[in-house]
Amino acid sequence: MHPAFSVIFLTTLIGAGQGLYLAMVTGQLYAIPNFVEAQVDRFYAFGSLVALLFLIAGLVASFFHLGRPERAWRAAAKWRTSWLSREVIILPIVMALVFAYGFAHWMEWTGTIFEVGALRVDVTLILGIIGTLASLALFVCTAMIYADVKFLQEWHTPLTVFNFIFFGAASGFMLAAAYSAYIGNPLVTFYGTWAVILTLVALGSRLAHLRRNARIKRKSTVQTAIGIRHNTLVQRTQGATGGSFNTREFFHGRSQRFVANVRYLFLLLVFPLPVLLIGASYVTESPNLPILAFLVQFLGLMAERWSFFAEAQHPQNIYYQSVA
Amino acid sequence: MTQLALVIDLNVCVGCHACVTSCKEWNTSGWAGPLVDQNPYGASPTGTFFNRVQTFEVGTYPNTETVHFPKSCLHCEEPPCVPVCPTGASYKRPDNGVVLVDYDKCIGCKYCSWACPYGAREVDEEQKVMKKCTLCIDRITDAKLPERDRKPSCVLACPTSARLFGDVHDADSEVSVAIRERGGYQLMPEWGTKPANHYLPRQKTRMHIDPDELTRVDNPLRKEDLTTYTGEETLDDVAW
Question: Is residue B220 over pLDDT 80?
Answer without folding.
Answer: no
